Amino acid sequence: MTTAATTEKPRFGFWGLFNISFGFFGIQIGFALQNANMSRVFQTLGASMDDLPALWVAAPLTGLIVQPIIGHLSDRTWNRLGRRRPYFLTGAVFAALALFLMPLSPGFGAPLLFAAAMLWLLDASLNVSMEPFRAFVGDMLRTDQHSAGYSVQTAFIGAGAVVGSIFPWLLEQLGASNVAAAGALPDTVRYSFWFGGAALFLAVLWTIATTREYSPDEQAAFAGQADPVEAGQPVSALADKSYLSSGIWIAIGLLVILAVDALALEKEVLLLGALLAFYGVLSATAIALAKRGRTTNMLSSIVGDFAGMPEVMKRLSLVQFFSWSALFIMWINTTPVVTQYVFGSTDTASAAYNEGANWVNVLFTVYNGVAAVAALALLPQLSRRFGQVVTHMICLSLGALGFLMFFVVRDAQALLVAEIGIGIAWASILAMPYAILASNLPQAKLGIYMGLFNIFIVVPQLLVATLMGSIMKLLFPGEPIWTMLFAAAALGLAAFLTLRVGKLR
């Protein structure tokens, strides 16, 4: 007879927690290089400010497609590498390849198109590796260690982002050239991508080599009677749904498409309308399959799980939506804002512009460094005193104040203070929602639910990428500083909506 002791996951010490999440250090180096430098790369290759949102749309679109699929597949995978680790390795190989090829963009016949394609490959590959890492913590740790596990993961995210963000500035200090001819990338950028690709691959390889995943039988023994959701329940419920909601999604998508010409919106808004209509078609297809009793296919499983999300996940998803709207505005617009308003240049070949672009790397380094420290030192104390939900609200409010400083401050050094608030918010965004979810979601579906939760990270990024350009062109043409006010408002709203999550805790 199996005893309670044999069905309890072992408690992990410091090095166990370290090994589980060290691969995320490398993944975040890749994300940091992407976030801090791709606007610079695109502008250097000839993109205008109005082009940036459309070029950046690759990042959230790939996440929207990749993460639910990888979550669904990894829940059902078991081979000699394990459950999640095969995806760690596959994503790392292709992400490192994209980082190696990105700096070679100026040598291709269509450099801007090639750079956009490499961004697509990079972001897709990073998502393939990243999504299972979220579920991996829940797989490996006991419930009472979830907060510690996600805090350590957040610390590695912050540390990896520091390394990725500081690369160009550090290389300049070591003598690498930070200025290049028009249309060419400086050595600081090229070498940063190459070093980052190697660091990403080695960090992920470390986690693969130093961890052993629990087999499906072991996971079933650990779960016992604790999993409250039956595997087929959401898909069975899908069979009872009508096609009305699918029709509404299709209608909204078509209206958005028609509005592009009628309201003279930017062409990238067409993508938003197409995605809305496409989801309606997929939803209708999944419902039809479920009604015919075909419930084991991936489409019906994903749509069914999306429709049957637990209530705490639904409310937390709205908080994530506005939080990530603010973050994506920051990643797209910080370089144009700082170079234009603080360093006084929009000429990508000028020393002032490149000095400002490098300062953005320093600013990003600061907020990521603050996040790494806050994840281990500040969040646990606040959480013990106020609870996870109130802690998240406080941190998001500090981040909103940080974005507001960007709107009013014109001193480069003073912006470091703004990054402290943003860094604390970033730490909480990366840790608190996942700690809450991991303790409230069924183990057998942790991968798919974490992947679906990413939709509410990706959709706001798509909205920013498709709509922000039209809004700015209409209201504030040539004045990207106003995007920071939008970011402050979005993060402030996210802080307010956190209170609704608290009612369920």
Q: How would you describe what is shown here?
A:
Helix content is 75%, strand content 0%. It is mostly helical. The chain has two domains: 13-222 and 310-502, MFS general substrate transporter like domains (Growth Hormone, Chain: A), CATH 1.20.1250.20; 234-299. Helix 6 (146-173) packs antiparallel against helix 7, helix 11 (269-291) runs antiparallel to helix 19 (455-475) and helix 16 packs antiparallel against helix 17 (415-438). It is globular.
CATH architecture of the largest domain: Up-down Bundle
- Number of DSSP E strands: 0
Q: First CA to last CA: what distance?
A: 36 Å
Estimated structural class: mainly alpha
CATH superfamily of the largest domain: MFS general substrate transporter like domains
By CATH, the topology of the largest domain is: Growth Hormone, Chain: A
The DSSP helix count reads 20
Name the features.
single chain, 505 residues, mainly alpha, Growth Hormone, Chain: A, 2 domains, 20 helices, globular
